[in-house]
């Protein structure tokens, strides 16, 4: 099932069904314009994300990453162009946004209907490694655990598209690495398309099937990342890609 979020100036009016979407794309954003006052943040941007593809969106602060993510989430509308996204979407933000007055399980079950909601919530918590923590209050969880609950909450409704806005930026380095492994594992199991927004080059290389760089309101560069897990951590291919991405971001290549 696809839903088209149209901008004011979009000429196209039809909503194509999922099966008809060209090349099994989960996301088709075409000629997207978003401006705030005089400031054009997204300037005729095109982006597609394949079904079950994990795309990392990289760009400097203020370049429009969250703006694009909000359009894909359906929280905001473009001023021009069109955005076609699946019906079942979930968003994971930097802050876990858990309800402090609900236990972990209830936080995961928010929005779920049906007699199997409890079982599905428990299964989702187990999937992110939090079996046994169902009755924990958010304040009793570490930052990484709370973000795992947020991940479980995003995945429990079986989304076709998961949007992440700097989901691990607040976590320490080791926890972040574990979360990268978890996200790639969950992606394999759920077969969902994912867009991860970050300004961390190493995170991009760790996670992506494809890295897209946002610059001057458009996708200014893109790189398929066809590397084995170990090659993402060390080696010439990784270093070459890292240097290229840093150059794209206008940063000098620094070792380490
Ligand atoms: N609702 C809004 N009203 C006015 N300006 C906005 C609004 N939302 C975003 N902007 C502006 O649009 C630009 C892009 O913002 P956005 O939040 O998308 O950047 P970002 O790439 O996510 O940055 P960061 O990496 O710091 O999160 C910024 O200049 C911001 O001030
Ligand atoms: Mg942002």
Description:
- This protein has 256 residues and is of the alpha/beta class.
- It folds into two domains: 12-88 and 160-256, Rossmann fold; 96-157.
- Helix content is 32%, strand content 27%.
- It has helices at residues 65-73, 104-109, 117-127, 143-155, 173-190, 201-207, 229-233, 236-248; strands spanning 2-6, 25-36, 39-50, 54-58, 80-86, 89-92, 161-165, 193-198, 210-215, 218-224.
- The strands form two sheets. It has a six-stranded mixed beta sheet with strand order 6-7-8-4-9-10, with helices on both faces. The chain has a four-stranded antiparallel beta sheet with strand order 1-5-2-3, with helices on one face.
- A hairpin with a 2-residue loop joins strand 2 and strand 3 (39-50).
- It is globular, with a radius of gyration of 18 Å.
- The N and C termini lie far apart (44 Å).
- Adenosine-5'-triphosphate binds at residues 36, 41, 59, 61-67, 199.
